[in-house]
Amino acid sequence: MVAQILGELLITVGIVLLLFVGWELWWTNIDSGIKQDQALEQFFSDVTLAPEPPAPSTDGGEDAPAVEDFGEPAVLAQSALTGTFGVVYVPRFGENYSRPITAGVGTDVLDNLGLGHYPGTAAPGAVGNIALAGHRQTHGQVLDQIHTLVPGDRIYLQTRDGYYTYVFRNTEIVLPDRVDVIAPVPTDPAAEPLDRILTLTSCNPRFGAQERIIAYSVMESWRPLDAGPPPEIAEQVARAAGQA
Questions:
Q1: Phi, psi dihedral angles at 101 (to 5 degrees)
Q2: What number of other Cβ atoms are within 10 A of residue 75's Cβ?
Q3: What is the CATH number of the domain that holds 22?
Q4: Which of the residues 117, 135, 139, 147 is marked catalytic?
Q5: Do residues 199 and 186 touch, judged by C-beta distance below 8 A?
Q6: Which of 13, 14, 55, 127 has the greatest count of CB atoms below 10 A from its CB?
Q7: Which distant-in-sequence residues (6+ apart) come within 8 Å of 205 by Cβ?
Q8: What is the pLDDT of residue 137?
Q9: What is the DSSP string of 170-214?
Q10: Is position 147 annotated as part of the catalytic site?
């Protein structure tokens, strides 16, 4: 009798665990995806997109689009970094990859609204370090493919002012207490920032959280909103805005 009861309890626990895993790896992604789409819809409701620019010319190879000079980038004030204030596009992650950037890195943001912006870090385009966090395997899987980035990959940030292009440099694996990776000069909090850095942070390994994987990029260029998106992501932007 005792063995039978114990066996039934173990089966029940097993079923509960399976349901929990299914909820974590399946339903949270669906639920978060719906909320991210709503956040993007709200963002684009306040943004008037310019017509698609001409196809890019290249100098130095197919993967090296010519860069237009629009002068110093427009930078949102820290007080404007509230709610969903931007969008991230990463062609390496797929032609449909567009995720909202929302202020804060609490569970209310990371579990529902894509990429969270670490409070106090730079705005897109600013000198210093704009640091973003996101889940890998649950709640939208916004950085599930972070490990696939290769040097030279471009990451695009959009705000209501325009588009900011960052070029990926390298990744680093650190322990969770390494908060210096989001300093204005990553890993060197005492240094004076000179570059415009983008830092993406997520859990490591996949399906685990014992470490953090950090991806660093450096800003290459920017385009004001009325100049249209970089041609190489024009279709992604149109799809994200529901205009494709």
A1: -110, 120
A2: 19
A3: 2.40.260.10
A4: 135
A5: yes
A6: 127
A7: 211
A8: 78
A9: EEEEE-TT-GGGGSSSTT-TTSPP-SEEEEEEEEESTT--SEEEE
A10: no
Which residues form the domain of 206?
Answer: 2-240
Measured in whole angstroms, how far is the alpha carbon of residue 4 from the centre of its chain?
50
Q: Each residue of 42-65: pLDDT tens digit?
A: 999 988 887 665 555 544 344 555
pLDDT at 71: 93
SS3 state of residue 73: coil
pTM of the model: 0.83
> Minimal CA–CA distance to 216: which of 140, 100, 134, 132?
132
Q: What is the CA radius of gyration of the chain?
A: 20
d(CA 35, CA 149): 26
Q: Which one from 117, 139, 147, 203 is the annotated catalytic residue?
A: 203
Residue where the block lists tokens 């509230």: 82
The whole-angstrom separation of Cα 201 and Cα 169 is 14
- 141: β partners: none
CA angle, 171 then 176 then 181, to 5°: 50
Query: What is d(CA 155, CA 219) in angstroms, rounded to the nearest whole number?
Result: 9
**Residue 203 designated active-site:** yes
Question: Is 128's pLDDT higher than 70?
Answer: yes
Q: How many domains does the chain have?
A: 1
From CA 123, how far away is CA 131, in angstroms rounded?
9
If you average pLDDT over every residue of the chain, what do you get?
86
Residue 18 predicted with pLDDT over 50: no
